[in-house]
Write a structure and sequence with these properties.
Helix content is 70%, strand content 5%. The protein contains nine helices and three strands; from the N terminus they run αβββαααααααα. By secondary structure, the protein is mainly α. The protein has one domain (12-245). The radius of gyration is 19 Å and the shape is globular. Helix 4 (108-127) packs parallel to helix 9 (228-245) and helix 6 packs antiparallel against helix 7. The N and C termini lie far apart (45 Å). A hairpin with a 2-residue loop joins strand 1 and strand 2 (53-56). It has a three-stranded antiparallel beta sheet with strand order 1-2-3, with no helix packed on it.
């Protein structure tokens, strides 16, 4: 797939380097901070790490990484990728209107997609079983000490914007502009799978639902030729989730 003038805000290699650099930095900060938190709480000789969990001996009690992570920690580190991308965008003077695809807002067919997608995703979420004990414990840990307004601002608004920029704009474009196959489904499917995999859930049904929702959002990126509508949908769904769970 060739890059047209209105798409060429960055070379695919540059997009890839931005993503890798951002998340490599993010991973280092997360692991370092979590390691320090565990060391401060438990004796080093009683700690081991396996399959994403810290094993606390001698009672072999396990603590998930996410259980040691508060909402403030999550937000602090999640802004690292977007900060890297924003600095680069300012230096290179990207066209923000083109980058987000604000022109898609004037097309009626895109609003039809928006309404169908919102109804479909809400329906999918309503069919899910209630969160199990582990999922409820995780949300309680992340949201500890936060007001509903704070949760909606962070989880309902800011995080969806950041995730859509990374997955439905940068990563989607990286796949479609670098893979020698003239099909938008490469970016739609692969970006959706990676997004779903990174949103780990304790319940299999929730993981499948997340993948389906991700496919709907990724298709919206292709169909509307922008990320404004995927962002709006993501914001609505996350906000409703915060209200229902809080």
């Amino acid at each position: 797939m060739t890059i047209t003038n209105n798409q060429a805000y960055a070379h695919p290699l540059t997009i890839g380097l931005l993503i890798v650099t951002s998340y490599a930095t993010l991973a280092i900060f997360i692991l370092w901070r979590l390691f320090n938190r565990v060391i401060d709480t438990y004796k080093p000789e009683h700690i081991s790490f396996k399959n994403g969990t810290f094993i606390l001996q001698p009672d072999d009690r396990s603590v998930s990484i996410f259980e040691l992570y508060s909402l403030n920690d999550f937000v602090y580190h999640f802004f690292i990728p977007i900060a890297v991308i924003s600095i680069y965008a300012l230096i290179k003077k990207w066209d923000i209107k083109m980058f987000f695809g604000f022109s898609s807002l004037v097309k009626l067919k895109n609003w039809v997609y928006f309404l169908i997608a919102v109804v479909a995703i809400i329906g999918i979420n309503l069919m899910l079983p209630p969160p199990d004990a582990e999922a409820a414990k995780l949300f309680e840990r992340i949201s500890q000490g936060q007001t509903l307004f704070h949760l909606i601002l962070i989880i309902g608004v800011l995080i969806p914007i950041i995730e859509e920029v990374i997955f439905r704009r940068l990563f989607y474009d990286l796949l479609n502009f670098s893979v020698p196959v003239a099909s938008p489904w490469i970016g739609i499917i692969v970006s959706a799978i990676i997004f779903g995999a990174l949103h780990y859930q304790y319940q299999a049904a929730a993981m499948i639902a997340t993948l389906i929702v991700s496919l709907i959002l990724s298709y919206g990126r292709y169909y509307t030729k922008g990320i404004v509508f995927p962002i709006l949908i993501h914001v609505i769904i996350n906000t409703l989730g915060c209200i229902m769970i809080a």
